[in-house]
Amino acid sequence: MRISPSLSRPRGVRPSRSKAARPLVALLIAAVALPMAGCARNRAGKGDLPYVARDVGTLYSAAREKLDQRQYKVAAALFDEVERQHPYSVWARRAQLMGAFSNYLAKSYTEAIQGAQRFLSVHPGNRDAPYAYYLIAMSYYEQISDVTRDQKISVQAQDALGELTRRYPNTRYAADARLKIDLVRDHLAGKEMEVGRFYERRGQWLAATMRFRKVVDDYQTTTHTPEALMRLTETYLALGVREEARRSAAVLGANYPETDWYKRAFDLLGENPVMPVKPLAPGEQVVPQLTVPAPAAPPRTEVEVLPIEDAPTPRAEAPGAPTPATTAGGAGATPGGNAPSNATPTGVQPGTPPAPPQDQ
Questions:
Q1: Whether 107 contacts 141, CB under 8 Å
Q2: CA-based end-to-end distance of the chain
Q3: Rounded CA gap, 42 and 28, in Å?
């Protein structure tokens, strides 16, 4: 007779699970340890270095070595460590600027701008101040995007480059800054042209005209000016302002006669000639005086005249009836049967005022 294992085990006794649970415990430990190791690697990658007291020469040399090895983030962290451990050293000022330069090479432009600005706030009159301004401007310049995106960074780069040329016009950094200012202005003009062409494709002629006009007025030394003048000719013709279109084409022909843009503008004017205006005679008004027509007479209507009927025959009065002149209230008597009103009182002449009463 075969006995089942469940029947052979005494009641209340369970099998040991220690061997089966060991693999699960190992998996749990591994699952917890892996994220912690990843966090440790992330902290090390961010450049957080443990504080180890070293002399300034050792720290600065180690930072320069990492910079030469193109480990820019590590070099920036070591330069910051020089400033932290030896803030009053001569090398701390140099390390502050080199840390900003290391962040610039690592394409951490925000950290580079902050480091250079901190250097200028602490050492505004230092001989390396022009380089700090140049580093700030270049950090903005490297972030310029294409014309289909927002150009706020381009404006900031233009302002930073202009600040450098205004403060230190005779330095070697200012010469390069002037060249980059022209490039930034050309980029901003390209943005205006992109928006203007968008409005023109949608038939919004006035909005397109304002964009092209901004290019001609504010960025007239850029490479986009010939196209802007031709586009102005198009939009002015679309708006019906033919004289302004002719003027834009004339400016285009005077400054850029050999370009294809002038040929296109010339063809547009040939297809839409400007109509000459007849000169006014001396004393003639530009706007004719408005004459108000006289009101029309009302229409005459024919009135039908009816014939007059014969007057009715008066009836006979009864004998002894009073006449109208003697009846009370009649036309020939006064009220109460008195004499007629045209009778003159006794002792009073007609037209003479009555005498005043005598004193008693």
A1: no
A2: 178
A3: 22
* Three-state SS at 128: coil
User: What is the total count of domains within the chain?
Assistant: 2
Calpha distance 334→342 (Å, rounded): 10
Nearest to 222 by CA among 199, 256, 198, 250: 256
Q: Token pair 């460590």 is at which residue?
A: 81
Eight-state DSSP code of residue 106: T
Query: What distance in Å separates the CA atoms of residue 155 and residue 161, rounded to the nearest whole number?
Result: 10
d(CA 173, CA 169): 8
Residues 125 and 107 reside in one and the same domain: yes
Q: Is 222 helix (H, G, I), strand (E, B) or coil?
A: coil
* Cβ proximity of 116 and 136 under 8 Å: yes
Per the domain annotation, does 329 fall within a domain?
no
Give CA–CA dist 278/293, Å, rounded. 28
**Cβ(87)–Cβ(121) below 8 Å:** no
User: 238-273: per-residue pLDDT in tens?
Assistant: 999 999 999 999 999 999 999 999 999 999 988 876
Instruction: State the CATH number of the domain containing residue 205.
Output: 1.25.40.10
Full-prediction pTM beyond 0.70? no
Radius of gyration of the chain measured on its C-alpha atoms: 55
**Domain coverage including residue 162:** 56-190
Helices 172-201 + 205-218 axis angle, to 10: 160
